[in-house]
């Protein structure tokens, strides 16, 4: 592009050009720049152009109000400070109804709403391990008798129904609301503390969700909540924890996948418009090369039993200098090529560290997508290669903010990805812990706060289509997926046109 522009600009001092020439050169530069933005390849239909008028009116109203009074611009604040206000926004409500395609980065035990999680605590035979006279719950366990083991010193096992009776219904609900999410996060100041908080929630939910009768219902409900938020396809990273029964015995790991398989089949039968779901086996990255070899073997064997369900491999957990991705290269190269890599990498605001350099190893290992890739813009060569090889970046704006990587969405590095038309998909990571919708809040923040002011329906459409283009679906499955998505998309476009007046007049409740 630079050589093309050079012939217009010429070698001379630009200050010597006439005002008319200056205006023409400026127009040329702006067109070149706008033509390079993600979504510029989309051609809108007549109906989409009409719907776009409503969408952009809503966006400009919020954007211009934010310019006049920055205190009213949601992307300039922490999500927890504006969560309830955002849900009153007409733009957000319209985005909620939008078919978003797929959510390609979700984690097994952080998908369902807090309301659903609290409902699980009313199940029979549930015990809670508490400290401080029941004021803090550290662990859950389903058991006929009082559990004999606990992961925490000085804890006390108590039946959940008796604890609720003793503490009171209102107090217990308030306590669980606090335990099951990071909201409001006011006391967390660093990335490490935020990670510790998030991992404590995963630990707390482990015994509640890995109970065999609960796990299937949890996964089915997760698909339901995502579907209700306009998501027709879901890829889930999972540790594949063994499920346990009421007597305490653990089931083989393949039983966990079998539950996934059965519940997915049941959900698709109940919801014909839903496309599919795939599993990415994702053990913790804080391990040894020897153990990594075991994970590769497990993934290979399970893929043979569930070839259409378990299709990929990743490593999860906070990146740190002790466990860089390059540490496991020898073992990872033994993975059969048909099992694709989808590595988390560069989820950091550091530069020149083993953490951001994980992006280099992810690319060299042939990853199909990069989870977060927050540090990618600091590596321009890798960014060019990512575009060259069509490796999509899984951008999770709210997750990045909650984990203290950046405070203002307008400064999110994904803006540079958009400006350079780097392939990316929007996802939420752990919406359960943020108390956000499965994907709508991330779309809203990206559309209003990260994308440029003039980004319109083309941006939304390209982002939704990218989620299927860069999914783990086969080419044949992608064709079917696009048909199902387009049907929903056309319905949403018609809805926007037919209800434009009501949408524009919708009051902020």
Automatic annotation (TrEMBL):
Pfam (any one): A_deaminase
EC number: 3.5.4.4
Gene Ontology biological-process annotations: adenosine catabolic process; inosine biosynthetic process
Compartments in which it is found: Secreted
GO CC terms: extracellular space
Record key words, sorted: Hydrolase, Metal-binding, Secreted, Signal
Domain Adenosine/AMP deaminase N-terminal: 15-95
Annotated Adenosine deaminase domain residues: 184-481
Gene3D superfamilies: Metal-dependent hydrolases (3.20.20.140)
The keyword Hydrolase appears for this protein: yes
A molecular function GO annotation: adenosine deaminase activity
Coiled-coil residue windows: none
EC class name: hydrolase
Reactions accelerated catalytically: adenosine + H2O + H(+) = inosine + NH4(+)
Domain of life according to the entry: Eukaryota
PANTHER family: ADENOSINE DEAMINASE (PTHR11409), ADENOSINE DEAMINASE 2 (PTHR11409:SF39)
Similarity comment: Belongs to the metallo-dependent hydrolases superfamily. Adenosine and AMP deaminases family. ADGF subfamily.
Full protein name: Adenosine deaminase
Species the sequence originates in: Drosophila rubida
């Amino acid at each position: 592009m630079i050589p093309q522009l050079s012939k217009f600009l010429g070698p001379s001092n630009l200050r010597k050009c006439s005002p008319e020439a200056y205006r023409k050169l400026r127009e040329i530069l702006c067109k070149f720049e706008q033509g390079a933005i993600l979504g510029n390849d989309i051609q809108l239909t007549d109906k989409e152009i009409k719907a776009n008028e409503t969408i952009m009116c809503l966006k400009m109203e919020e954007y211009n109000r934010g310019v006049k009074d920055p205190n009213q611009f949601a992307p300039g604040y922490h999500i927890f400070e504006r969560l309830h206000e955002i849900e009153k926004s007409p733009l957000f409500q319209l985005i909620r109804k939008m078919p978003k395609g797929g959510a390609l980065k979700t984690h097994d035990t952080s998908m369902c709403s807090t309301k659903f999680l609290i409902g699980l605590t009313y199940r029979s035979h549930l015990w809670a391990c508490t400290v401080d006279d029941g004021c803090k719950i550290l662990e859950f366990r389903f058991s006929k008798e009082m559990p004999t083991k606990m992961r925490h010193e000085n804890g006390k096992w108590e039946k959940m129904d008796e604890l609720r009776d003793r503490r009171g219904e209102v107090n217990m609900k308030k306590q669980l609301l606090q335990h099951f999410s990071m909201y409001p996060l006011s006391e967390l100041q660093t990335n490490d503390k935020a990670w510790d908080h998030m991992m404590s929630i995963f630990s707390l939910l482990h015994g509640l969700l890995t109970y065999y009768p609960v796990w299937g219902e949890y996964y089915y409900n997760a698909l339901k909540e995502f579907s209700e938020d306009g998501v027709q396809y879901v890829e889930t990273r999972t540790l594949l924890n063994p499920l346990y029964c009421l007597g305490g015995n653990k089931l083989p790991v393949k039983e966990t996948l079998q539950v996934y398989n059965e519940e997915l089949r049941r959900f698709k039968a109940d919801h014909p418009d839903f496309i599919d779901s795939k599993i990415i086996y994702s053990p913790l990255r804080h391990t040894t090369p020897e153990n990594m070899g075991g994970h590769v073997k497990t993934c290979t064997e399970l893929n043979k039993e569930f070839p259409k369900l378990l299709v990929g491999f990743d490593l999860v957990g906070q990146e740190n200098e002790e466990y860089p991705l390059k540490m496991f290269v020898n073992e990872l190269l033994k993975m059969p090529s048909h099992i694709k890599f989808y590595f988390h990498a560069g989820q950091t605001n550091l530069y020149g560290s083993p953490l951001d350099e994980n992006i280099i190893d992810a690319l060299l290992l042939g990853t199909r997508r990069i989870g977060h890739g927050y540090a990618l813009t600091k590596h321009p060569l890798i960014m060019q290669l990512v575009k060259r090889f069509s490796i999509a970046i899984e951008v999770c704006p709210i997750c990045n903010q909650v984990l203290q990587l950046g405070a203002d969405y307008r400064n999110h590095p994904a803006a540079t990805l958009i400006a350079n038309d780097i392939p990316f998909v929007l996802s939420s990571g752990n919406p359960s812990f943020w108390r956000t919708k499965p994907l709508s809040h991330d779309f809203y923040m990206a559309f209003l706060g990260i994308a440029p002011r003039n980004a319109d329906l083309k941006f939304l459409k390209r982002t939704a289509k990218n989620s299927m283009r860069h999914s783990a679906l086969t080419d044949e499955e992608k064709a079917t997926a696009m048909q199902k998505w387009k049907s929903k998309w056309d319905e949403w476009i018609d809805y926007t046109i037919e209800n434009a007046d009501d949408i524009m007049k919708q009051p902020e409740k």
